[in-house]
Amino acid sequence: MTSSKGSRIRVLDESTVTRIAAGEVVERPASVVKELCENAIDAGAGTIRVSLVSRGGRVTSIQVSDDGCGMDPGDAPLAFARYATSKICGIDDLPSCTTLGFRGEALASIASVAHVTLVTKSRDGGGISGTRIVNRGGEILSQGETGCPSGTVITVEELFFNTPAREKFQKPPAAEAALISGIIERLAIAHPETSFEFIHNNRRVLSVPGKGDLMDAIMHLYGLSVARQMIRVQGGGQRVRMDGYISNPSLTRKNQYQMYISVNKRSISSRLLAGAIRDAYGTLLPAGRYPVVFLDLTIATPEVDVNVHPTKREVRVSREEEVREEIVSVIRESLAGECLIPAADSGQNALPGTGDPVRLQYGVPEETGSGVREPLLRERIATGRQ
Ligand code: ADP
Ligand code: MG
């Protein structure tokens, strides 16, 4: 992921705006967190901290801080302008765009329905002071210098203060915190090099160290019992390269909720890609069950259309059939490498049992809880050694 590196924010021209599938992205606190975290990742942050405060059954404050590139005093107010972005100059840049954001509307949308305080300092601006801007309902109330470390802190309070209908539909804070955890998990899996921490009312809900090792992130988030049932996947063809882990068929879920798939490090939901992975297991999986998957697919950016939906959770891939075939083939090779599928027959019709498959048995201690790390175990899992 390339960061926006403090490049100047510009307002997109009219014809680009009409073609970027723009739309409202702020439905709830969790969508605010998603947008702010994505901005932090685009800013090249190594550490992202999310803090949620709730009182009296309502979310009262959402804060996201990062140590990314920050903004200089000239750029900071523009970040609140609608369709203002530093990530693309026009629609022609979209095919090569590698950042998570590009529409320049998230901060404008959030500020239009909340009280937002932005504190930011450019990493390479050289100045000693940063900028503090207060925006309420889309209007800048104050702007001035402030002392702060480089990076960005955005605090969102009184969300939906001017849209009572939307306020009424908010879920209780505990449900919102669960949604936020899910969003951070997805981001952490797609960006294992970034450290995430999520605090709710001074209680740490989640923490991922961001050491750049996906297995480390999996162990922190899901514990040893999931981690030890993972099979390494690395490979690809002309259209797609795959990197990550898939579960041994002994670990399944009743739906796709733990199929974490990202395309070019953008966490997405795709029936096509999830279906291809599921199909590759063939009859190794019981009917109606799904594997646990942590996979990043690298596909040439011009072949991926991210401009399908305002939340960018869906993408469209060109040459779908070829991509699908390559995915099936890499997954089947990985399963065959673990002796779960007879290596000689990696065709779609191979049945478990026909080639004396051996289920892996890792000689590891029982799970002692999430957050436990054991380098030896990780090594075994990564190499698939017994
Ligand atoms: P987009 O991400 O689509 O560009 P946003 O409204 O989310 O639109 O953000 C507008 C601009 O503000 C970004 O393009 C970026 O230049 C700047 N910005 C927002 N958040 C951050 C951040 N955490 N660090 C640095 N710059 C940021
Ligand atoms: Mg954004």
Q: What's the arrangement of secondary structure elements?
A:
Elements lengths: L9 E2 L2 H4 L11 H14 L4 E9 L2 E9 L17 E2 L20 H7 L2 E7 L8 E7 L2 E8 L4 E7 L6 H5 L4 H18 L4 E6 L2 E6 L5 H14 L2 E7 L3 E8 L4 E2 L5 E5 L2 E3 L2 H11 L8 E2 L1 E7 L4 E2 L10 E2 L2 H18 L37 H9 L3
Parallel strand pairs: 2-9, 14-17
Antiparallel strand pairs: 1-4, 2-3, 3-8, 5-6, 5-8, 6-7, 9-10, 11-12, 12-17, 13-16, 14-15, 18-19
Bound molecules: adenosine-5'-diphosphate and magnesium ion.
The site of adenosine-5'-diphosphate has 25 residues, from helix 2, strand 4 and helix 3.
Report the biggest beta sheet as strand number plus sense, adding barrel if it closes: 8 strands, mixed
Distance between the termini: 35 Å
> Number of helix segments?
9
Uncertain regions: pLDDT < 50 for 5+ in a row? 1-6, 344-386
Strand order of the largest sheet: 7-6-5-8-3-2-9-10
Overall, the morphology is globular
Question: pLDDT average, as an integer?
Answer: 85
**Tally of DSSP β-strands:** 19
Question: Strand share of the residues?
Answer: 25-35%
C-alpha Rg (nearest Å):
22 Å
Q: Catalogue the ligands.
A: adenosine-5'-diphosphate, magnesium ion
Kindly state the percentage of residues in helix. 25-40%
SSE run = EHHEEEHEEEEHHEEHEEEEEHEEEEHH
Which secondary-structure class do the elements indicate?
alpha+beta
Describe the structure.
With 386 residues, this protein is of the alpha+beta class. It has an 8-stranded mixed sheet with strand order 7-6-5-8-3-2-9-10. Strands 11-12-17-14-15 form a 5-stranded mixed sheet, with helices on both faces. It has a two-stranded antiparallel sheet with strand order 1-4. Helix 2 (29-42) runs parallel beside helix 5 (173-190) and helix 7 (271-281) runs parallel beside helix 8 (320-337). Helix content is 26%, strand content 26%. The chain is built from 9 helices and 19 strands. The relative contact order is 0.12. The longest helix is centred in the middle third of the chain and has 18 residues, at 173-190. The two termini are 35 Å apart. It is globular, with a radius of gyration of 22 Å. Adenosine-5'-diphosphate (ADP) is lined by residues 4, 9, 35, 39-40, 43, 66, 68-71, 79, 84-87, 101-108, 152. The site of adenosine-5'-diphosphate has 25 residues, from helix 2, strand 4 and helix 3.
